[in-house]
């Protein structure tokens, strides 16, 4: 029997429902957090000039990628909501919000796979028929682009993470014709016109807002972008002045602590100092050491070693089913879900994270590194702001 997490539950009922779901999945968090030897690989090809690559990384732990088809492993919605102190809000908030997921190419099984994920973890159905889910191409039509298995797995990851954090939100999937910035930008413009929050789990080389910024400059819409999975080195559009750049952590259960979890900077989380784009004015007091746009701003779980459960039936590398997936592709839709639960996007900007900052609203990540760099905080976690994890990870929604 599955327990549903539905809108309108009282706080006590919601807590009981979450406990019941967790009891049905006793080994999942432990599998992800206690693994000592793991490997992963990216699902998308390296980005060519003028294009982006998705940032999803699947666990392999063998010579080839493998799906845990029998049952889900990895962190589930109960884990994520507990880790970021969102449990009560997830039961009551988000009904007026639409999260748009922008990705390239087509995932032909997106809606069906989302249904499997939500049913597995007791989330209410989100379908075209009930008005919760909508899938369109980059111009809002239903003539979809070619299928790409790597991007399809990315799409499933994004849909599942948005659902995990904001189960009451509506979801709009916008599929770009290709991974070029021009096509992804067209999809971004459509998404921003039809959603309150937009999530992007892809990027390419650092670029200029004077070239591509019009795709991301949408007042009143919260836009999250994954910072990348290659360690230190700025990527675009995470380096855009107009978005929230989302870095990555390793999230581990920690019994006996008040939070119940610990986090360190993920060794591959993207960070950097843009060569081109204007700094966020509010960031200047946080000692970024970057005269232009520094990334990341905030973070969430991304390390495949503490990866999340994802269901995808589009065959990737000969397999389909339940996967354990990581990358800042996971953290971007998680933070998008936090923005949606907060419901403030119409009146704030990404700069508000800094100007309204309170240490009580974030879990500060103070250990870990993503490489070597000329300015220590660009690649090393520390108290306060740092490149791999930004201001830290969400502690509820007050910071958003």
Largest sheet: 8 strands, mixed
The CATH class is identified as Alpha Beta
Q: Which descriptor suits the 3D outline? A: globular
Helix and strand content put the structural class at alpha/beta
What percent of residues adopt helix (DSSP H or I)? 10-25%
Order of helices and strands: HHEEEHHEHEHEHEEHEEEEEEEEEHHEE
Number of beta-strand segments: 19
Descriptive account of the structure:
The chain is of the alpha/beta class and 400 residues long. It has a single domain, classed as Rossmann fold. Helices cover 25% and strands 23% of the residues. The chain has 10 helices and 19 strands. The protein has helices spanning 11-24, 28-34, 77-83, 87-92, 110-120, 149-165, 181-194, 209-212, 328-342, 352-355, and strands at 40-42, 53-54, 57-59, 98-104, 133-137, 170-176, 197-200, 202-205, 222-226, 235-236, 244-253, 261-265, 272-278, 292-295, 298-301, 308-316, 319-326, 362-363, 393-394. The strands form 5 sheets. Strands 4, 5, 6, 7, 9, 11, 12 and 15 form an 8-stranded mixed β-sheet that branches. The longest helix is centred in the middle third of the chain and has 17 residues, at 149-165. The two termini are 35 Å apart. The model is unreliable at 1-36 (pLDDT under 50).
